[in-house]
């Protein structure tokens, strides 16, 4: 197992280096000058302008800038924002709980709906329900997040008035100091009546939009895994013994089919964080995704580079943990 762990850790190193290089190159291809963002439209002397460029290291050759950037990352320094003059890690830590809360809500919603839907579709293979579910899953997977979000805002939020369409809580009715950064937990800790309900109402619509693609993936993977398990000999033996259908499907088959499903759920972390960029922007959700979009608009190189690298690091770590967990569950994987 230790050798398996070392191999997986070794594979993450080139991935991290490649991400670092691609992030550095891609960000510098974005049109605009971060110096202009920092000095604004006010008049400034050429000497002062040159000093700003020197402070940002933009007067150095590109290879020197990349070397300095890589050395900073190795020291755990993700840079300082050009606009706010705050450490990127500080801003990331303040905003990341909002993204985690939204992603967890989306994943819980996707898992609670996707797994039962896939199980029923496998048990009723070829039926109208099965075909309808597969059609809906393809539609949900193919649906653009920005279009789906705007559609729900237009009908659910504006026309029907069922849920709020922006923010994390009604700041006019409820105000309290954040403790954990998770609004639902902080609302509960505040003890204010109706705060938790309001926080959940604000969370519902973004979670549905963000969880649509993982829901489709989980439903299809559960159905595929269940169909494979239902054809095994021990399942046919259980049926021959006269066990109820719900016990054969829900206990004997589902328990073994969940192994690849759990893996897929873990691998959806990257999809959730990528989708959070658009979802948070559409719903004005103050998380990492909205912060990165604003960093692009402001040409804030350090914030953008550091934010992308931090998000990428989270995805790499989660995928590594899922990979190791899968190796623990299925010993054939680590011995392969």
Describe this structure in words.
By secondary structure, the protein is mainly α. Helices cover 76% and strands 0% of the residues. The protein contains 15 helices and no strands. The longest helix is centred in the first third of the chain and has 36 residues, at 88-123. The chain is globular and about 85 Å long. The mean pLDDT is 84.
Tell me briefly what this model is:
This protein is mainly alpha-helical and 336 residues long. It is built from 15 helices and no strands.
Structural class: mainly alpha
What is the CA–CA distance across the termini? Answer: 12 Å
The average pLDDT score comes to: 84
- Total number of helices: 15
Shape: globular
Can you summarize the main beta sheet? none
- Uncertain segments: none
Helix content: over 70%
Q: In sequence order, what are the helices and strands, one letter per element?
A: HHHHHHHHHHHHHHH
User: Any idea what the radius of gyration is?
Assistant: 24 Å
Strand residues, percent = under 5%
